[in-house]
Amino acid sequence: REVTEKLEEVVMIWTKQIQQVLVESKQIRREADDVGPSAELEHWKSRMSSFNSLLDEIKSSRVKKIISILQAARSKTLQHWKELDHSITTAANEAKDNVRYLYTLDKFFGPLAHASPVMMEHIPSLMNVVFMIYCTSPHYNTSEHMTSLLLKITNQMINTCKTYLCEG
């Protein structure tokens, strides 16, 4: 019984830490007004890395042993643990998916940043890929994500035009 209580305490600490990571991941991002679309890809790559590291830790043999001991002891802390495990897995899958979809835009980021204002040749293809992401992505097709992405694309176009005007 004493061992079970100690292990439950450990799981409760992990639970609080995981909840903190989940809460932070859902907070509104603060970004500069002129940040470009590559920042969106970097954000999701960073999130994917964080959640994958957390998943690796959760799936480690040490954690699995503790969870199996608590399962054998029929601990009540496991219900919440299972929910958090599911939430972390979902967040990791979302980040991985978003990175995969945003990588399809990566080939446009360079030309968008370094082209002359006559960048119209890139816009139709870029918008087709954005549309494809919106139609096929199970996670990224929200109004919030699309607005953020389109805002960053617009920011990049404005920055490119400013640079062209100042150099020209």
UniProtKB/TrEMBL annotation:
<dbReference type="GO" id="GO:0007018">
    <property type="term" value="P:microtubule-based movement"/>
</dbReference>
<dbReference type="Pfam" id="PF08385">
    <property type="entry name" value="DHC_N1"/>
</dbReference>
<dbReference type="InterPro" id="IPR013594">
    <property type="entry name" value="Dynein_heavy_tail"/>
</dbReference>
<dbReference type="GO" id="GO:0051959">
    <property type="term" value="F:dynein light intermediate chain binding"/>
</dbReference>
<dbReference type="InterPro" id="IPR026983">
    <property type="entry name" value="DHC"/>
</dbReference>
<dbReference type="GO" id="GO:0045505">
    <property type="term" value="F:dynein intermediate chain binding"/>
</dbReference>
<protein>
    <submittedName>
        <fullName>DYH5 protein</fullName>
    </submittedName>
</protein>
<feature type="domain" description="Dynein heavy chain tail">
    <location>
        <begin position="5"/>
        <end position="166"/>
    </location>
</feature>
<dbReference type="GO" id="GO:0005858">
    <property type="term" value="C:axonemal dynein complex"/>
</dbReference>
